[in-house]
Structures are given as C-alpha cells and as structure tokens.
Amino acid sequence: MATAVDDVLRTIAASGLAGSSLDVPDRPLDAELWADVLAAARAYRLVGLLRRALDSGDLPATPAQAAEVSRDHVRAMAVVIALDRLLLTTIDLLEGAGVDHRVLKGAAHAHLDYPDPSLRSYHDVDVLVPAGDFDRALAALAQEGYERKYRRLGPGFDARFGKSVTLSAPDGFEVDVHRSLAGGRFGMSVKLDELLGAPSELRIGGRVVKGLGPEQRFLHACYHAALGDRTPSLRTLRDIAEMLLRGRLDIRRIQRLCSSWHGEAVLARAVRLTWETFRLADVNALSVWSQRYEPARAEQRALRTYTTGRSAVGQALTGIGAVAGPGAKAAYVRALLVPERTFFADEGTGAYLTWWRRGARSAMKLHGRR
Amino acid sequence: MSRWMRNSSVLWRRSGSSVVILSEGQADPFLLTGAGALVWDLLAEPIAAPELSELIARLCGSEPGVIARDTDPLLTELERLGAVEAVA
After folding, report:
1. Do residues B61 and B72 lie in contact, with contact meaning Cβ atoms separated by under 8 Å?
2. Closest Cβ–Cβ partner in B12, B16, B29 for A73
3. Is any Cβ of chain A less than 8 angstroms from the Cβ of B20?
4. Which one in A17, A320, A325, B58 has a CA-CA gap of 20 to 30 Å to A236?
C-alpha cells in the first residue's frame, strides 16, 4: 500500500512531465513527512528532480526546506561530476586495452535525454563492453586497482552468461561493467550485436564518448525498470517517460529490437508501470500496446523471478532455455550446479549443499510446486 | 588582448544559481555562486575581461570598474584552477 512518502516521491519524480495528473501538495510538508521524503529522495537519487519540483512550485516548501534541498543538490552534483571524471578514466583504460565501450544509465541519460543534466543524479558508473572483450576489460581495470566486489561463479561465466560485474574503483566509487541488460532469461535473449549497433555520441568534459543508440538506451531503461528491482526505480521510470514523451524515438525500431530479443513482456511491463506510476494522460503507440499486451505463462513465470518472487537463482534457472547450443548450455548448467570453490570462499563445507538447496527451492517455485 | 573561455575539459553542473566545477588536475570540485555563476555562463564563448565586466555591470546596474575589481581576480583564480583558458 502506498504511503504518504511514496505519493510525494512520485510527485517529485514526475515533476515537469507533461500530462501527469498526480496530485500536488498545496502546502509545505510537515517536518516529519519532509524529513522522510528528503531522506528517501537522497537514497533514490531524486535530488535533481526534487530541486526542480521546488523551483517549479510542484512541491511547496518552506525557506528552510528549500535551503536543505539546495545544499543536497550541490552535493549530488559534486558527486556526478566526480563520477563523470571516473567514467572518462575508465574509458581511457578500456580504450588503452583495445576494448570498445558504451556509456550506460545515469551519465548517458543525464547528458542525452534530459533538457538539463542537473536534473538527473546518479551514484555510480556504468559501461557496456562487447562480450568477447569482457575478460580483457576486467583485466585492464584490475591492473589499475579496480577490485571486484562480488565473487564470480566460475572462469568465463561473466563473459559468456553474466549481466555485469561490479568493481570498486580506487577512489571508492562503483563501476559496473555490463555484458548485457539483465541476468537470466531476458538478459540471455538480448542480441548483443544489435544492442551495440548505431551508438549515440555524448560529450563529457569536452570528449566525445559513445552511448547506446536511443532505442537501445530506451530498452535498457525498460529492462532496468521491469527487472532490476522488486519495486521499480522511480528514477528509471522517469527516464522512460522522459524519452518516450519527447517523441524522438523510433517506435518501430524499438518493437523490432524487442521482438528480436523476446523482451515484449519486459517492455510492456515497464511502459505500463511508467504510465500508471506517473498517471500520464498522453497516449502513444507504445503506451496503448503495453496496456493490451498479455504475457504468456512462461513469460509471467520468468518475470516473477525478477519481481514478486525475486531470486537470483530463479533468474539464472530461467536463463537455461535461452542459452544457445548444447555446449554452452552444458557450461552454463555446470557453472550453476558447481560454482568454483572461491565463490563460496569462507562459507565452510556446507556451502555447496546450501547452494543446491536454494537452487532446488527456486526450481520448484518456478514450476509452481512448493 | 586575451579573451577567456571555459576549458572544454572541465566537468560542471548548474545547481540553482550556483555552478559546481571540477577541473582537470584538481582533486576537489569548487562552487561558484551568484555573480560568479553568471561569469561562468558568459565564459561559454570567448570574452575579454573588460567586455565581461561591462556585461555584468549592465546586468547588475553597476559600474564596469567596480565589477572588474571582482571579475579580474576571479578570472585569475579560474585560470589557476584550470577552469578557464586564454584563447586568441
């Protein structure tokens, strides 16, 4: 059930969106609600839009509240320009190793999809590299002190089957190196050459770097919104609305790519969520289609592993069917069944049993058995 | 006479009436507020120091000479920080 904080956050995330019929407070929030909203806006990286909401009058505020937001926004902007610097450093290292790249998510949306990049806060760096260069990319970054945050399942798994690897850069910020848009079935179905094709250019610090093409970038936002968290990120829903309402996307290309990637259920869920969350009145081909789309049972089962029944193991299991070729399928299953010893590190002798028990539970849930 | 312009390698964002700036080689960002942020806006294109003072004086309803007492040292500091460069 939505709380008062949720309602205000939605209003903040929708600030400036044409056609949103969300209720707007008619007076400044009381102290307790304001404290919770501000904390949530910081946590969910909505400070840029919060600033806009105050400046535009979408959210009435006292002078003290406005001053707090001003300070927070300056801090948030100091973070994003530090991240832009880290992004450029990371790209230099990748290029030095002969690895192609695409800038993803926060930095890409801020520079390409918003009328003012200061509206879009972010807290890490995201880059996509070609699967064939994935291990070389990680090696090049490791050489310069970027450390893996989570253990790998097995040698070569990330480059063949993974979604992304999270690294800690020497300055403490996180860098996510992506291979695809998601884990599991929906990630494995993405055609990576189509994902990388026809890149956009964005200018950061006087340098031209590459991002995903607009339709691929839109789809990435949809995948992230529909699959990335149990509760869709308001920031990501705003990215979707911002791009779709601008009217510059090639809808047919989106649908062609999505069909090629077997991602219709993902796209439909993301657009429907965006329209419902922001109560958008504008109608377009995608918003109409998303309301009408009925996912097949297999799609619903797969979606559940990312949402209400969220489970990394469940997602991984749904990926088996999407892996092409018997040899690759066998390698995928082997990695899931028997991760390398270092994956369990200090967890003791029962680690494999625990891992298999979790896998069995996820498999049973996936197939509707308790 | 030198004209000044933002260094293209600078990373920056506007925040209300302020600008947050991170120059190459500097460890930490710095903030320009009020008229300093206005100077930053005007440095998007090459501009000579006297022209800068005149423009701001006109906008603020002041005298160029008075404004220059602030803008000239600001330009010097921005150059020291690598945020601006002299252009032909």
Report:
1. no
2. B16
3. yes
4. A320
